[in-house]
Recover the amino acids of this structure.
C-alpha cells in the first residue's frame, strides 16, 4: 500500500505555486472501495444538499437553490449556515457523489475491453451525470476556480482521475500515458468544458471529442501544461466572462 | 506626554499578570490605582466548598450566586462608555466584526412581506446596546427585502437595555414594531417558549455568563429545529507572538485607559480578565457540540471562523431536526 497521508495535507504544506504540480505527483491514497472511507457527508448535509441539487436546473448553483434545499429537507432558511462555503457546497456535493457513484457503474463494463476503452466509457458515464445541470455547469466551473476553492477543486479532479484509472483496472505501474493522472484529468476537464458548449443531441459531439482526445493520449505528454492552461482559463477568462454577465463570484 | 509612565506601568502589570494566578487582586498592581479599587469583596479570596459553589469573576474566584450581580454592576458602570471599551479591546474593529458576523449569518427571509406571519423570530442575547439587533434588522430589510422578521433584544441588565432603547429611538428603529426588549438572564430564558426561535445571536456576551453550558442548553431549548446559534466573542490568538503583544496591550494598557477615559478601572480590568478566562476556540466548539448542535465546517477541521488572527471568533451551531 502506498503512503496514507491525506492528499490535501501534503498539498497544503507546499507553497502555492508548487501545489498544482504537486497534486499530480502524490501517490494515490484513496479509492472509493479500497478503503472503508467515512461517509463524506453527514445525514443532515446529505438531506439538504441533495435537495438543493434538485433545484439547480431552475436556480443554478446559487444560495437560492441551497435555501430551497433546506426547506425541502424540513429545515429553515437560516439552517444554510451549516454550509460556510454557500453555493459551492452544492458543486462539491455533486462532484463527490458522482465520483463515488462511478464504482457502481464499473461492474457493468466488459472485462475484455482494453483500458483506454474502459476509461472512455467511465469518463463518458461521469460526463453524462452532468447532463441535468449542464446549462449551469459554467457557474460551477467558475466557483470551482476561485482562489478560495481551487485546492478543493484540484483535489477533486485528481481523485476523479484516480478513480477512473483504478476502476478501469490500471493498477500496474507502467509507463503508458494513461497512468499519468494529470493527463487524464486534463482530458476529462477539457471534455467537461466542451460539453457546456455542446448543442448536439445526446451530447454526441462531446463523446467524439473525448474519444479523439483519449486516442491522442500518447501524444499528449504535456498534461501538466494543459492543466495549467485549464486552471488559468477558468480562473481568468471564465470568471471575468461570467462576472460581466452579472453572475456573482 | 505620559507615554514612558504608561509603558512602564504596563510592563509591570504584564509582568505581574502573566501567567495568571487566580484569585487575582488588582490591589497589588499599583498604589496609585488602588485607591479607586476599594471594593470590599476583593479582600477575601473565597474557598471552594460544596454548599457555596464558586465561579470566576475575571481572575477572581467568587461564589456563583454573586457573579450575576457583579457582572451587572460592571455593565452598569460601562453602559455609557461602552463603545470606548469595545474600541479598545478590538483595536477599533468591532464594528467591522459585527458587520461581518451579521452578513455571514445572512438573517431574514427573501422577499418576505409584512404581516404574512412568515418572518423569522430572532433573539439577540446580551444584546444590550442593540448593536447586533440594528444590523440584523437592516440586513433583513435591505439585503433580504424582508419586512416581517422580528428581533427580541435580551439582556440581563436594564441599564444596557435602556441604552439600547435610546439608540433605537435615535436611529429610527423604534417605530418599526419589529424590535422588542426582554430583560432576562441568558441562563434562564423562561419567558421564551421551546422551539420558538429561528436565530439566536450573542456577541461579546457569553464570556460573562456564570454557566456557559446552562446558557447553551437554554439556547438549544428555545431554538426551533433547524435554528441557528451564532456567537461572536473575543478569543485566543493563533500566534504566540501576537498573543503576547495583545495581552500586554489588553492587560497593561486597557484598564489604565479605562481609568483615564471612563474613570472606572476595575470594570475594565474585569472585562480584560474575563476574555482571558474564556475557553479557546476548540474547547468552545466542543461545548457547542456537547449541547447537541451540529457545528458547520467541523469535517474540514474548521468549526469556527477566526477574525484578525483570533482576537475574535465566530462559532455557529445548527439545531438538528
Ligand atoms: C460586552 S456587552 C455586549 C453587548 C452587545 N451584544 C455588543 O456586542 O455590543 C455584554 C452584555 O452581556 C450582558 N450580560 C452579562 N451577563 C448576562 C447574562 N447572564 N444574561 C444576559 N445578559 C448578560 C451584559 O449586561 C452586557 O450588556
Amino acid at each position: 500500500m502506498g503512503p496514507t497521508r491525506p492528499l490535501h495535507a501534503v498539498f497544503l504544506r507546499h507553497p502555492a505555486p508548487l501545489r498544482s504540480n504537486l497534486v499530480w505527483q502524490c501517490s494515490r491514497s484513496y479509492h472509493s472501495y479500497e478503503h472503508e472511507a467515512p461517509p463524506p457527508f453527514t445525514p443532515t448535509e446529505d438531506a439538504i444538499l441533495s435537495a438543493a441539487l434538485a433545484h439547480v436546473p431552475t436556480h443554478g448553483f446559487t444560495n437560492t437553490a441551497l435555501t430551497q434545499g433546506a426547506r425541502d429537507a424540513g429545515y429553515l432558511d437560516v439552517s444554510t449556515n451549516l454550509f460556510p462555503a454557500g453555493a459551492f457546497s452544492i458543486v462539491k456535493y455533486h462532484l463527490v457523489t458522482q465520483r463515488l457513484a462511478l464504482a457502481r457503474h464499473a461492474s457493468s463494463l466488459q472485462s475484455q475491453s482494453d483500458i483506454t476503452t474502459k476509461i472512455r466509457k467511465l469518463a463518458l458515464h461521469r460526463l453524462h451525470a452532468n447532463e441535468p445541470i449542464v446549462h449551469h455547469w459554467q457557474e460551477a466551473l467558475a466557483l470551482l476556480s476561485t482562489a478560495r476553492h481551487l485546492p478543493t477543486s484540484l483535489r477533486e479532479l485528481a481523485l476523479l482521475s484516480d478513480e477512473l484509472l483504478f476502476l478501469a483496472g490500471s493498477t500496474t505501474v507502467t509507463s503508458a500515458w494513461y497512468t499519468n493522472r494529470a493527463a487524464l484529468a486534463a482530458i476529462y476537464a477539457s471534455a467537461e468544458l466542451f460539453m457546456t458548449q455542446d448543442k448536439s443531441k445526446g451530447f454526441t459531439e462531446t463523446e467524439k471529442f473525448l474519444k479523439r482526445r483519449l486516442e491522442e493520449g500518447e501524444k499528449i505528454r504535456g498534461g501538466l501544461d494543459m492543466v495549467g492552461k485549464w486552471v488559468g482559463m477558468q480562473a481568468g477568462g471564465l470568471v471575468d466572462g461570467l462576472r460581466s454577465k452579472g453572475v456573482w463570484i | 506626554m505620559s507615554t514612558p509612565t504608561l509603558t512602564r506601568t504596563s510592563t509591570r502589570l504584564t509582568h505581574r499578570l502573566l501567567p495568571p494566578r487566580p484569585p487575582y487582586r488588582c490591589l497589588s498592581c499599583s498604589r496609585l490605582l488602588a485607591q479607586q479599587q476599594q471594593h470590599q469583596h476583593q479582600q477575601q479570596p473565597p474557598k471552594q466548598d460544596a454548599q457555596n459553589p464558586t465561579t470566576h469573576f475575571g481572575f477572581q474566584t467568587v461564589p456563583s450566586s454573586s457573579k450575576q450581580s457583579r457582572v451587572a454592576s460592571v455593565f452598569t458602570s460601562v453602559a455609557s462608555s461602552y463603545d470606548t471599551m469595545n474600541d479598545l479591546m478590538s483595536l477599533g474593529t468591532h464594528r467591522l466584526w459585527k458587520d461581518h458576523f451579521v452578513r455571514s449569518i445572512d438573517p431574514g427571509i427573501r422577499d418576505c412581506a409584512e404581516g404574512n406571519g412568515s418572518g423569522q423570530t430572532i433573539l439577540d442575547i446580551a444584546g444590550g446596546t442593540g448593536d447586533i439587533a440594528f444590523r440584523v434588522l437592516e440586513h433583513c430589510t435591505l439585503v433580504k427585502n424582508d419586512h416581517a422578521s422580528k428581533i427580541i433584544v435580551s439582556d440581563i441588565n436594564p441599564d444596557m437595555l435602556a441604552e439600547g432603547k435610546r439608540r433605537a429611538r435615535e436611529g429610527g428603529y423604534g417605530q418599526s414594531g419589529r424590535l422588542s426588549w426582554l430583560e432576562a438572564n441568558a441562563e434562564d430564558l423562561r419567558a421564551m417558549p421551546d422551539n420558538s426561535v429561528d436565530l439566536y445571536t450573542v456577541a461579546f456576551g457569553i464570556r460573562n455568563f456564570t454557566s456557559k453550558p446552562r446558557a447553551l442548553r437554554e439556547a438549544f431549548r428555545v431554538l426551533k429545529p433547524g435554528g441557528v446559534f451564532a456567537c461572536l466573542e473575543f478569543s485566543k490568538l493563533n500566534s504566540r507572538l501576537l498573543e503576547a503583544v495583545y495581552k500586554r496591550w489588553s492587560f497593561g494598557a486597557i484598564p489604565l485607559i479605562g481609568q483615564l477615559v471612563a474613570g472606572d478601572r476595575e470594570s475594565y480590568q474585569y472585562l480584560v480578565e474575563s476574555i482571558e478566562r474564556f475557553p479557546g476556540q476548540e474547547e468552545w466548539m466542543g461545548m457547542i457540540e456537547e449541547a447537541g448542535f451540529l457545528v458547520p465546517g467541523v469535517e474540514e477541521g474548521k468549526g469556527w471562523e477566526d477574525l484578525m488572527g483570533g482576537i475574535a471568533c465566530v462559532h455557529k451551531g445548527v439545531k438538528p431536526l
Notes: The interface with chain A takes residues 104-110, 120, 198-199, 224-228, 230, 294, 296-297, 299, 302, 305, 316, 318, 320-321 of chain B (CB under 8 Å). Residues 83 and 261 of chain B are 11 Å apart (CA to CA). Confidence is low (pLDDT under 50) at residues 1-48 of chain B. The domain at 82-238+271-293+304-318 of chain B is CATH 3.40.50.150 (Rossmann fold).
